[in-house]
Amino acid sequence: MTLATSGEISLGGSAANRSINLELGLSATAQISLNDTAVRSLAGVPSGAITVPTNFYGKSVFTPGTFTFTTSGTFTLPSGYSTAEIEVWGGGGGGGSYIVNAAANAGTASSVTGTGVSLTSDGGQAGFDASFLGDVASGGAGGTASGGSTNTSGGSGGFGISTGSGGESGSGGDTAAGVNAFTSGGVGGFPVNVSSFSAPGNAGGLPGAGGSGGATYIAGKVNDGQGGGGGGGGGYSRVTAAAATSPAGTVLTITVGTGGAGSSATNTISNGGAGADGRVVIKTA
Description:
The model has no long low-confidence stretch (mean pLDDT 95). The chain is mainly beta. It folds into 2 domains: 1-61, no CATH class; 62-285, no CATH class. It has helices at 20-23, 37-43; strands at 65-69, 73-76, 83-89, 100-102, 110-114, 117-121, 145-146, 150-152, 161-162, 167-168, 193-194, 215-217, 225-227, 236-242, 251-255, 264-265, 279-284.
């Protein structure tokens, strides 16, 4: 909220854009004086006499900003805000491999919840492991999303195959492009093609892209190589919250999903690529 540019301005009271108390995020009847630090800051008069209402016309305590969350936490919608554009990406799935000690993991969900807001972006599924040379290892499905005005599923991971003269892993799934950050989206891990050696998969790019599968080479076989499937990309959800439905002071609970680990290959070389962690971005205006 911004104080009016003409007419009456008072220290207290419940009139929208005419109460200094309300502009400062206080109750209409809170104790306040012109010499309070917050009041002087709002007026732009650090010392000396303050003129009411002139020094307060058009003033606001609100400063627009863009906030990126890489870990879970909370965010309080600030006094004076009008809109908050919220973007949520889930974590990417890990890539698969061939002959593994441990299978890849799916990415986990990211979410933002609070009064008037409930967004969830699921993590991408893990890429599949190949069971035998010549197998086709499926890629993991992309994560879904819900609760936003825009909800986009992540891309699916690619297939891992044997090429007959080596192995080729599946690429990781991409994530949707954002508006205020990550405007190209997360790029899935690039596939690996081997014909004389084994190689690990590549990690997915931020935010939330899937890792590619690892690829194994085994000399002397009819199908002498094999790739694992790529992990799916995390889902993406976006909504614009407004002060009318999500009032200033609303506390948003933020969960940032993690990327899934890639498969652990028994040869310790051709491990699947890790999925990228999710992200939450909030832009206030």
